[in-house]
């Protein structure tokens, strides 16, 4: 079993908080920089989870967004802004369903 790392890509508040937790991080200076960092992270197999700023994620090009929505690995986790208000992020249940291919909470 290969250990996967967690990468955090986002603005200063998100990156600072996660850096204090000891996670690898990349601070994005702009929306285009954010998109470039995500594209780069997708090429590196060492990252199993990529935590991203939800606001910036909603600003990326539609082609990259479509790609992110169709992949199961790495798992992309959008984090709301430091205000704590989520804009359009997937529910955790939906992310797990996409990653595993089935719904853990489904009743049979």
What can be said about this structure in brief?
This protein has 108 residues and is of the alpha/beta class. The protein has one domain: ATPase, V1 complex, subunit F (Rossmann fold, 3-Layer(aba) Sandwich), CATH 3.40.50.10580.
What string gives the helices and strands in order?
EHEHEHHEH
CATH homology-level superfamily: ATPase, V1 complex, subunit F
Strand order of the largest sheet: 2-1-3-4
Distance between the termini: 31 Å
Count of the separate structural domains:
1
CATH architecture: 3-Layer(aba) Sandwich
**What's the number of helices?**
5
Looking at CATH, which topology would you report?
Answer: Rossmann fold
Largest sheet: 4 strands, parallel
Low-confidence stretches: none
**Rg, please?**
14 Å
Mean pLDDT: 79
CATH class: Alpha Beta
Fill in the keyword field for this structure.
single chain; alpha/beta; Rossmann fold; 5 helices; 108 residues
Tell me what the structure shows.
Helices cover 40% and strands 20% of the residues. It has a 4-stranded parallel sheet with strand order 2-1-3-4, with helices on both faces. The chain has a single domain (5-100), classed as 3-Layer(aba) Sandwich (Rossmann fold). The protein has helices spanning 12-20, 31-42, 54-57, 62-70, 92-100; strands spanning 5-10, 24-27, 47-53, 75-79. The chain has 108 residues and is α/β, with parallel strands linked by helices. The model has no long low-confidence stretch (mean pLDDT 79). Helix 1 (12-20) links the parallel strand 1 (5-10) and strand 2 (24-27).
């Amino acid at each position: 079993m290969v250990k996967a790392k967690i990468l955090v890509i986002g603005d200063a508040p998100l990156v600072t908080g996660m850096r204090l937790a000891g996670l690898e991080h990349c601070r994005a200076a702009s929306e285009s920089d954010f998109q470039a960092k995500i594209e780069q992270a997708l090429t590196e197999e060492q990252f199993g989870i990529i935590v991203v700023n939800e606001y910036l994620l909603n600003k990326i090009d539609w082609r990259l967004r479509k790609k992110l929505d169709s992949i199961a690995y790495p798992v992309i986790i959008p984090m709301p802004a430091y205000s704590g208000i989520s804009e359009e992020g997937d529910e955790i249940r939906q992310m797990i369903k996409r990653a595993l291919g089935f719904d853990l909470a489904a009743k049979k």
